[in-house]
Design goal:
The protein is α/β, with parallel strands linked by helices and 191 residues long. Helix content is 34%, strand content 15%. α1 packs parallel to α2. The longest helix is centred in the last third of the chain and has 25 residues.
């Protein structure tokens, strides 16, 4: 291969890109994201990744966050269904489907998230969740991810019951809010 055309690809997570850091990346200045707390559902909107369960859980648990998904690689019928579901649940104003996310923006989106949620029917090697955990964000993962990592201790949800995910999500939000209050009170910085 010609040197100028060859590119090194990372097998696994590139920790030079995916690491804890500031949550003020350029992507958070986009309309609809600026000044918000986000719940990120990073997987492609396809039937396999069960975004309908994520939307139902988000509607039941969330008050002030914005649910962020990507239209990249989405199945059009599934994406339309998710948008209709959000409208039926009265949360369409708090669901953002980003048409474009540049690869360099992905770590910033993880860092800005309150929590990253993924509950697929099945999966193999989820670089998406490994990248999220490398940035230090809390992960709510489906049963499929018990084998992923004990280090960040992702929370697990089983089955299709959005209330199982909701309870897990509420636990995470309570913990995040506790640390935010502690940080303000003690003027501590968690890195």
């Amino acid at each position: 291969a010609e040197g100028e055309r060859a590119e090194l690809t990372q097998d696994g997570v590139d920790t030079a890109r995916s690491n804890p850091g500031p949550d003020d990346g350029e992507i958070m200045r986009r309309p609809g994201l600026a000044g918000t707390r986000i719940v990120l559902s990073p997987r492609a909107v396809r039937p396999l990744y069960r975004h309908e369960v994520v939307v139902a859980a988000f509607a039941a648990a969330s008050n002030d966050e914005v649910l962020v998904m990507s239209a990249l690689g989405a199945d059009p019928a599934t994406l339309d269904g998710v948008r209709r579901q959000a409208a039926d649940l009265g949360i369409e104003g708090r669901v953002r489907v980003l048409d474009r996310i540049d690869p360099d923006e992905i770590p910033d989106l993880y860092r800005a998230a309150t929590v990253v949620v993924s509950v697929p029917e099945s999966d193999s090697f989820s670089v998406t969740l490994q990248e999220a955990m490398a940035t230090g964000v809390q992960v709510v993962a489906g049963e499929e991810y018990r084998r992923v990592s004990e280090e960040n201790r992702p929370r697990y949800a089983q089955g299709d019951d959005p209330h199982e995910i909701t309870l897990t999500h509420d636990e995470v939000l309570i913990l995040v809010e506790f640390f935010e209050r502690l940080e303000e009170k003690e003027q501590l910085r968690f890195e």
